[in-house]
Amino acid sequence: MNALYKGFIVKAIFLLIILYSIKDYVIGFSNEFIVGDKVFNGMSLYLCGIIGLLITGLLIWVTEYYTGTNYRPVKRIAA
């Protein structure tokens, strides 16, 4: 789990700092793109990345709770 947490923290820092700058330089925030009947801009792409980061954090937490030996579900099965 420690390796999973370290990877998550590195990914979060990379997304929040480095990709923010790259996305702003390449795409910009206010440029609008049309794909089919959908319209999106650079900020919506960045927010998608942040939402993905939050969901990943939630999945890590749930995984640790249901598979970690320190928590009730595993202790109950072991007993």
H and E order: HEEHH
Question: How many domains comprise the coordinates?
Answer: 1
**Structural class label:** mainly alpha
Strand order of the main beta sheet, please? 1-2
Beta fraction of the residues? 5-15%
**How many strands, what sense, and barrel or not for the largest sheet?**
2 strands, antiparallel
Number of strands: 2
Which blocks of ≥5 consecutive residues have pLDDT under 50?
A: none
Instruction: Report, as a whole number of angstroms, the end-to-end distance.
Output: 23 Å
Outline type: elongated
Rg of Cα set: 18 Å
Q: How many helices?
A: 3
The whole-number mean of residue pLDDT values reads 86
Helix content: over 70%
Features:
79 residues, mainly alpha, two-stranded antiparallel sheet, 73% helix, elongated
